[in-house]
Amino acid sequence: MSRLWWQDPFRMFQTNLREIDAGLDVEEVLDHLVEFGADTWLLSVGGILSNYPTDLDFQTRNPYLSQRASGDLVGDAVKAAGRRGIRVMGRMDFSKIDHRRAEQHPDWCFVDAAGDPQVYNGLTSVCPSGDYYQVKLFDVLDEVLDRYPVDGFFCNWMSFNEVDYSRVYRGVCHCLACMSRYAEYAPGESLPEGKESPGYETWQRFAREILADLTGRIRDHLARRRPEAPLVLGDRADIVFHEANNAVGRPLWHHRTSEAVSSAKSFRPTVPVLTNSVAFVDMPYRLAGEEPHHFAQYLVQAIARGANPSTYIMGTPKDNPYECLTVAGELTRFHRDHHDVYRELVPAARTLLVRPDQFKSGATREFQGLYLALLQRHVPFDVLPEERLGDIELSRYDVVVLPDLGPLGDAAALDRYCASGGAVVATGNSGVVADEIQLECLPAQRRMASHDTEEAVRSLHLRTEYGVVPVVGAFDLVEPSPHAEIGQKALSRAPYGPPEKCYGHLELEHPGRLRASYGEGRAVMLPWTVGRAYREVGLSAYRELVVDEVLWAGGQQVETGLPEQVEIVVGRSAAGRLIHLLNRSGDADQRFAEPLTIGPSWIRLPDADQVELLRAGVRLPVVDGRVELPALGLFEALVF
Q1: For the chain: N or C, fewer Cβ within 10 A?
Q2: What is the pLDDT of residues 348-361, one digit of tens each?
Q3: CA-based nearest residue to 164, from 99, 120, 101, 111
């Protein structure tokens, strides 16, 4: 089969339409997309409302289609876009149905543990286990495909609706289809009611498998009907979807977009990722545009990691001219103008940081601390979800970093990787089951005790190359293997008040670091939460300690005069090697400010003769392996 359009870089603009927008001026919207730099329009097509004259009795025609002479928004948009070389993808939302259909088909609907449906603004949530998703969805797709040459589909909010639009937790679905399917999946176990119920993690796996199976079926159906029309959805779809957004009341993780894109591209490097960036502050505050410096980070982080940029607005550009759309257009046009540079862009870091499963909330702080430490010390890295560890070829990496993960699902793969020449750096209790060391490569024989409460580690210190540091989070007492090199010994706890009694810290034999060879590889064990300590306390010693171990194990650090506020992302594309320099000096408390100008500076590129700077629009020589860089604004992209 010839190369499909979505396997090359593209740029999307989404108009998330209200029902009253059915009369929009198609040509006016397309004028905006062309000027913006987009070549793909994500248009609301069907599901909750059909913006075309559907003949399916379980679908609802948008009543405002009467404002159009044709009575068909989708038909008008597809024809006009086709004349101008713009692709149209269909946004579908099968998550809810109206009251009449809900009464006709209660078996389609979400039901909580008390037997109540989930109703919001007159619409009833449906369940992915039921026949609306499992059967009727395909009838809608077929009707659209039969009528219009659409270029792909996106299914919004395809989930089990545990949380409603008001962020009220509604629990686990107990519809008849879920009860029947779960009885087969987990014989003898009852459906949990919610997050605090026994068996919730089992149900989460069940729910993920239902959605993965449905995603696969939709993808296969589209491939049979129209191979050139991809599915945009989860990490098993033709195009992986990530929504970059803000939320009132949610702590800001400044690296969320970069992390999400990296985790998808590390799993399947050649599969496209779409970062749909929300131009407003939050769904309840959709009339207020996002801060431009904040929005810029969505697109910069996305394209640096190899994703396709997308901008998402409510309504039409005329009705909602958010201020952030100016910088969004600038960055979208940059991606358009350097289309060939971004073609076939894949990650090229040699260090892998594993992202913990969502249930391991404590490990998330450890992961984030290690993320910051590697970024600030200019060690390029990729991110991979923990559940994908057994699904990729780990030999792509020199070092795999495990952040306080506890028991691992595929320890054997890591042992094989290490034995054949790779390196593992494990922090916290990674690779520990009960008190047994699960990973053979780790230089410890057993865990003797675990101090994992605030009181248990309070006043506990380690003596390190960077001075004495406090233990924050957890510390495991482990028995070293005979061949282990130990260091960073613990100092015994002593009273911490009143001051007159604050003495008695004695050096113990309990190590805070163990190193060893394993086969042809290396392994490091830091049996304490050094990443969490860096995230929560911020002592630079934590960062230096853990990054030193990554470098000892074989990690690669970029030599540069750039400060820690510059993130270095490395990749390979059809144009050659690609380095993005992201200016993170604007990362501020719960916001992004305008980044400060950094430099001039330098970076070492020992294998290059010259380098092209795409933002600056210049070619520079590499002299003795080093290139002098001009001042850095928001970001720069180096091609060599």
Answers
A1: N
A2: 999 999 999 876 76
A3: 120
> Please, are residues 70 and 25 in contact by the beta-carbon 8 Å criterion?
no
User: Which residue type sits at 109?
Assistant: C
**Residue 483: enclosing H or E segment and its boundaries?**
none
Residue 30 burial (C-beta neighbours within 10 Å; 0-12, 13-18, 19+):
buried
Q: Would you call 119 helix, strand, or coil by DSSP?
A: strand
195 phi/psi in degrees, rounded to 5: -60, -30
Identity (one letter) of the amino acid at 72?
D
Tokens of 576: 């050659």
Tokens 């589909």 appear where? 153
Q: What's the pTM?
A: 0.96
Roughly what angle, to the nearest 10 degrees, separates helices 292-304 and 325-337?
A: 20
| Residue found by looking up tokens 């702590």 in the block | 251
> How does residue 1 score in pLDDT terms, banded at 50, 70 and 90?
low
User: Residue 451, CB half-sphere, CA atoms under 13 Å: how many?
Assistant: 23
Q: What is the pLDDT of residue 361?
A: 67
Find residue 13's DSSP bridge partners. Answer: 41, 311
The SS3 of residue 277 is strand
Contact yes or no for 636/613 (Cβ under 8 A): yes
| Pairing outcome for strands 485-491 and 461-464 | antiparallel
Query: Is 532 in contact with 472 (CB distance < 8 Å)?
Result: yes
The phi and psi torsions of 628 (rounded to 5 degrees) equal -85, 125
622 close to 605: Cβ distance less than 8 angstroms = yes
Q: Is the preceding omega at residue 230 within 30 degrees of 0, hence cis? A: no
Which tens digit of pLDDT belongs to each residue from 558-567? 999 999 999 9
Long-range contacts of 178-187 (CB under 8 A, 24+ apart): 178/127, 178/129, 181/129, 181/206, 181/210, 182/206, 185/209
Handedness of CA 330, 331, 336, 340 (dihedral sign): positive
Token code pair at residue 415: 């042992």
